[in-house]
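Researcher: Structure for this, please.
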Amino acid sequence: MLKMGSGVRIRHWVVAHMIGRLSVRHAAAAGVAAVGIEAAIGAIAPNDHARRHLLERVAVLPSAAHVLAVVVGLALLVLAPKLWRGTRAAVALAIAALGLLAIFDVVKGPAYGQAVVALGLALMLVRGRRAFPLGSRSRPRAVVVFAAAGTWALAYCVVLAGRVLSDRGRTIRRALHHAIGHVVHGSLAPARPAGAWTLVAELLIGCAAAISLLALRSLLRPAVEDSGHGDHEYRAARAAVERYGEDSLSPFILRPDKSFHFDDDGVLAYRLIGETAVISGDPVAADGQAPRLLSGFRELARRQGWEVAVWGASDRHLEAYRRLGLQAVCAGLEAFVDPAAFTLEGRRVRKLRQSVVRVDRRGWGIDTFQGRELDDALGCEIDAFEADWRRSKPRLLGFAMGMGAFEAEGRPDDLYLLARSPEGQLCAVMRFVSHCGRLSLDTMHRLHETPNGLNEALVCRALAVARERRVPQVSLNYAGLGHLVRDRERCRGATGRLQRVALGLLGRRFQMDRLVRFNEKFSPDWRPRYLVYEARAGLVRSTLRVLQAEGHLPQRRPRLARGAQLARRSVHASRRASAAA
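Model: Predicted structure, token format:
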């Protein structure tokens, strides 16, 4: 049996222990949640020491103090997650709510102990307000605010109408005066409930409270923005990639669904998913400037109420990121091949050699083109092939390591490999994007029936062309959790068995084993990629947002900014113009 006294003791214990174990921000959030729960439950059942059960004989329409206490308690529950994240506006609202709650505890109780706890939490928030750096949209949705105000007004009118109809034999003026007097002195309900009017009033008050909480939640939401960028931003970002884009992920920041943040001549690309800005790889900037660019964007993100996660970060800037207070975890491996050192001679590459011979023996042809060599007819054929391939895929993957479902403007030095069947039908297209004299694999698409080993043969041909062009480095597939796949045989005992079981389950969805085995055929140099995130408590949320960005988990389709929509519509014309030039 739960009593009011036990609820108070539980709240005091939770508040005391959370303060001792957590940071100021998290302790305050936990304490506010505990106070909100107890306040809402305690207000539903007014303090009556003769009652033995918490929810016994609940009033049909409680007094005004109890109604407001319920609303304030629920508001504290809405504020608690925002306090946990560090939203600055939630601090002032929580302080005001705790102050009101302390007053209500005295009025409806009196419960001085509960009032002291509420005031103590308010004092903690006042002293620790610097621990809440995130901003918010700073204004609620006008529609929700008007709906809440209208519903409260309608509920009050229903209460007044119920009193007028129940006070038979009195004038309307006396009835209104009587009703207003009861409200002022704390009683919203008539001495004898008016049946249907009371039920309607209850429903309206409940709806008004719910809509008010929605308005409060919208007030604390992070700022929102459309995905994408305008044409002038694209040109500036492309210039930065051509100048500083030595990283294999740099060219992929130019996807139309990514927004840009500039600092001097450096650029950072991101997409906002929920309250997290997922950054695509390391910032593209001059030597030593990438951490400063990330720090500036992080300050902007805090003002907007966003958290930051860098997906696909290299190990070049990890120490600088950690000095900014960020955390990092290895998320996978990327395979790099030196074309000058690659060869099809020897027993170690016997399977690759067999793939090349098999494709050639069956009469398949592989043609290679640079971006500048694509004429209108060939470009339209590739576009039609890509459209057919996309229609065959229910879900398209990629974010930081590919152009995904979005057309990209071609560059003169991009490398295209086209595989045709003996009948001349285009059945496979592989594209490597160029960046600072290097190549990075973008698309590897096939349609119709193709011989085994066709992808291997295409990569071998690409490496041969790269060797002729004196390309120093070619990036192949990125293998998520590839470091665990490669090291799983070394793990022994219960930990190794658990890791192998987990990798088996994940591998069915993410095909990690297949990517690692494919890349291993080319004897690559494996380099780690990292997920950089704000704090340890945000690792799970950052991981979910990254999976949404990559397309592994569902998300709302990104709404492209108007500039990005126009750029996407004109991309084919730009590609033709670049090829002609």
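Researcher: Any notable elements?
Model: The two ends are 82 Å apart (CA to CA). The chain has a mean pLDDT of 79.
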